[in-house]
Design a protein that fits this description.
By secondary structure, this protein is of the alpha+beta class. The chain has one domain (about 5-65). It has helices at about 5-10, 10-30, and strands at about 40-45, 55-60. It starts with a helix and ends in a 10-residue tail after the last strand. The relative contact order is 0.21.
């Protein structure tokens, strides 16, 4: 649950370890379990904010699970 601005600011220092984790994940054919877990948040849709029917659940995934490997 590292905030995206912190990852961006420390990219030069963490790029190699993250690449090693990603490459090991691909080589072993497994995905880190902590990268699969997300935080469920309620997103307001419309009308009355006091009715639960007007919200929908949205899963926010960790930033590192969205990195594209090139």
């Amino acid at each position: 649950m590292i905030p995206p601005p912190l990852i961006k600011a420390s990219a030069a220092a963490i790029a190699e370890p993250i690449a090693n984790i990603s490459n090991a994940s691909i080589a072993q054919g497994c995905y880190p379990n902590v990268w699969k877990m997300g935080q469920v948040m309620l997103l307001f849709k419309k009308n009355d904010e006091f009715k639960k029917e007007n919200f929908r659940p949205v899963t926010v995934l960790p930033v590192l699970s969205n990195i594209n490997i090139k």
